[in-house]
Automatic annotation (TrEMBL):
<dbReference type="InterPro" id="IPR013805">
    <property type="entry name" value="GrpE_CC"/>
</dbReference>
<feature type="region of interest" description="Disordered">
    <location>
        <begin position="29"/>
        <end position="51"/>
    </location>
</feature>
<dbReference type="Pfam" id="PF01025">
    <property type="entry name" value="GrpE"/>
</dbReference>
<keyword id="KW-0346">Stress response</keyword>
<dbReference type="InterPro" id="IPR000740">
    <property type="entry name" value="GrpE"/>
</dbReference>
<comment type="subunit">
    <text>Homodimer.</text>
</comment>
<keyword id="KW-0143">Chaperone</keyword>
<dbReference type="InterPro" id="IPR009012">
    <property type="entry name" value="GrpE_head"/>
</dbReference>
<keyword id="KW-0963">Cytoplasm</keyword>
<protein>
    <recommendedName>
        <fullName>Protein GrpE</fullName>
    </recommendedName>
</protein>
<comment type="function">
    <text>Participates actively in the response to hyperosmotic and heat shock by preventing the aggregation of stress-denatured proteins, in association with DnaK and GrpE. It is the nucleotide exchange factor for DnaK and may function as a thermosensor. Unfolded proteins bind initially to DnaJ; upon interaction with the DnaJ-bound protein, DnaK hydrolyzes its bound ATP, resulting in the formation of a stable complex. GrpE releases ADP from DnaK; ATP binding to DnaK triggers the release of the substrate protein, thus completing the reaction cycle.</text>
</comment>
<comment type="similarity">
    <text>Belongs to the GrpE family.</text>
</comment>
Length: 195
């Protein structure tokens, strides 16, 4: 059992224990209230009907609070499960990124040869692999030469003197493609910036 699943199981057990404790407390309070029926409140004796109405109102309030707490728990656990699935998918995608990089490099080398059948076959496999990853939510981070460098999106490897004035502070070269899974960047693009 993974740590996250174990944590979710422990949280479920804690909430179940809390629910049982709350129910036990409610039962004890009802029994205590029944024992105190004859006591006076503000100098007047309450009728049995008024006492029962008051108890019912208290129990309704407790029930509503307990129900709201349980609904919050259900929302929280479903959100955690979704996050767990996304994280599991992210680990697989991150592991496949070096394979995709090697595939891109191999395809570039095959393009230099004159064997068109080999090129066509490898391109078909490459496209199928990329489309499969795309269908699972993997998308490349769009970055090209001349884009403005943003530390939140890009990872600068080095700075070189800018080949032209318009490339100062901008991206000069993309060394490694970045990818995102949904809205989350799982690998930042490695770039060279101009100074």
């Amino acid at each position: 059992m993974t740590k996250k699943k174990k944590d979710i199981s422990e949280k479920e057990e804690m909430v179940k224990d809390q629910v049982e404790d709350t129910i036990d407390q409610a039962i004890e309070e009802v029994e205590d209230n029944n024992a105190e029926k004859g006591k006076q409140e503000d100098g007047e004796t309450l009728s049995e009907e008024e006492l029962l109405k008051e108890e019912v109102q208290k129990e309704k309030d407790k029930f509503l609070r307990l129900f709201a707490e349980f609904e919050n728990y259900k929302k929280r656990t479903s959100k955690e499960r979704l996050e767990l699935f996304k994280t599991a998918n992210q680990e697989v995608m991150t592991a496949l990124l070096p394979v995709l990089d090697d595939f891109d490099r191999a395809l570039n080398e095959i393009r230099k040869t004159e064997d068109k059948n080999l090129l066509q076959g490898v391109e078909l496999i490459h496209n199928k692999f990329k489309e499969t990853l795309k269908s699972k939510g993997l998308e490349p981070v769009e970055v090209k030469e001349g884009d403005t460098f943003d530390a939140d999106i890009h990872e600068a490897i080095t700075q070189i003197p800018a080949p032209s004035d318009k490339l100062k502070g901008k991206i000069v070269d993309v060394v490694e493609q970045g990818y995102k899974l949904g809205e989350r960047i799982i690998r930042y693009p490695k770039v060279v910036t101009g100074k």
